[in-house]
Amino acid sequence: AKLAGGNQAAFFDATLAETAEQRRHLENDLRQAVAQRQFSLYYQPIADLARHRIAGAEALIRWHHPERGLVPPDQFIPVVEQSGLINEIGLWVLDSACRQLAEWQAAGCPHYLSINVSGRQIPDGLPPQAVAAAIARHGIAPERLALEITEGILLGDIGVARAWLLAVQQLGVRLYLDDFGTGYSSLSYLKRFPLDTLKIDRSFVQDMQAESSDHSLVEAIVAMARSLRLRVVAEGVESAAQLQMLEAMGCHYAQGYHLSRPVPAADFAEVVAGIDRR
Ligand code: C2E
Ligand code: CA
Ligand code: CA
Ligand code: CA
């Protein structure tokens, strides 16, 4: 992703923040960003393919840098994770998402909302009690909130990860497995962990053509998930043809630029109304 502001981009690319000095500079800016609340959440709609309407959204963090403008997460989340700032930012994301859910609920709009949780936050950065507290503080229905985790969390101490997942599930909050297919996917995880939904990584969805191997792969994932009573979201849907294929496969949900890019909260209702009218 390119940063608005051209040649400043390299500075913020976490993979390029290689020297100790660049790192320190970026970390300082991020500390200030936390203190000055320079973050916001954007919302990308997720469509229910059987009902032909928007079911909810994924919340995606954005950094509004005072000089450099909008910075996408790939350019700062890795540094945030390594510096430990992820815990504070993660709690802010949780609180903001719950506030948004409360707003939708008050408006009579029964959307689901998922947030991204980094493996670094588990278990102590985002304790299940903090999730319970946010739900109570905003008075939301817990089943409207979902936490997106990746297979990476299962690489550490599996017992710790499993205990955390079970405690979150006990709250009534949903658990999505993000970027499915890119990690060390072991089918046994799907049975051993209390997951509600698989999100098929966009790399598979984007390369889907009729009769291609990625088409067969996505079809097989959908069939397997359905037989395990998991729901499936296809990510990165960029064309009507992909949407149609996914619907034919029995995939439950779709998300991608074809429906909408992630948008600020203020634009969300209008975007949803536009898609639902299609
Ligand atoms: P992700 O969780 O896999 O999120 C989906 C990414 O794909 C988003 O990028 C989204 O804008 C992009 N996307 C959606 N539809 C399409 C499409 O049709 N085509 C293409 N090419 N891309 C599409 P974004 O917002 O830049 O976020 C990148 C990553 O940063 C996320 O990947 C997630 O891993 C991380 N991230 C975002 N927000 C948070 C957060 O609040 N906390 C943590 N820990 N990580 C976050
Ligand atoms: Ca995600
Ligand atoms: Ca993903
Ligand atoms: Ca990702």
Automatic annotation (TrEMBL):
<protein>
    <submittedName>
        <fullName>PAS domain S-box-containing protein/diguanylate cyclase (GGDEF)-like protein</fullName>
    </submittedName>
</protein>
<feature type="domain" description="EAL">
    <location>
        <begin position="23"/>
        <end position="276"/>
    </location>
</feature>
